[in-house]
Amino acid sequence: MKEKNLPGYVRVSSREQNEDRQPKPLPDNFYEVHKAWKNKKLTQKEAAKACHMAESTFYNKAKKIGED
Q1: Any domain includes 14
Q2: Per-residue pLDDT tens digits for 5-46
Q3: Would 4 be classed as within a structural domain?
């Protein structure tokens, strides 16, 4: 690596990846869908589709809400 590039490389590599990226806001119907999913009225797949997100994303967001 060239000496002139080293300060920038150290600065960038010391930051955590995606540090500045803000999470997308939850959809307006998320809490209603989450409640239906918790009460077993919807499957995880149906709930995720209703919120227009991946199943894993829906589950992770739902898990985070449960912790609060």
Answers
A1: no
A2: 667 666 665 556 666 778 899 999 999 999 999 999 999 999
A3: no
Give the three-class secondary structure for 23: coil
Crossing angle for the helix pair 55-67 and 30-38, to the nearest 10 degrees = 90
Domain extent at residue 49: 28-68
Taken as a whole, the chain contains a residue count of 68
- For residue 4, give Cα distances in angstroms to 1, 9, 13, 25: 9, 10, 15, 40
Dihedral, 30, 35, 37, 40 alpha carbons, nearest 10: -170
In the chain, the amino acid numbered 5 is N
- 50: nearest Cα among 31, 25, 22: 31
Residues 58, 45: Cα–Cα separation, whole Å: 9
